[in-house]
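Form 7-S
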Amino acid sequence: MAWLIFDGNLAIETWQSRSILAVVYLGVFGSLLGFIAYFYVLQHLAPSTVALVTLITPVFAMLLGAQLNNETLSPSLILGAGFVLSGLALYQFGQRLLKLFWQPKSANSANPS
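Output:
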């Protein structure tokens, strides 16, 4: 709608093949396969775990952009991705880590007499 209001010009001759392939790729892989994978995972995992996929998607997109499109990764992007991955790891493995590293002292060991 904004395109129609502001410009309304469709200059097909300026389209690049890489841009067209990117749109087709996003339409096929980003939508179709993404939804298929999402609903498959939703059937096999808890919905609260599946909801975390939306948090890790930007991290994967950033890494794919750096790998496939030679995009630069700034230190703040890497730090942010580390925070996201750390948060997801704490959510996923937090209870196990808590049990592993923090064991409450029993009542018998508190009173040695």
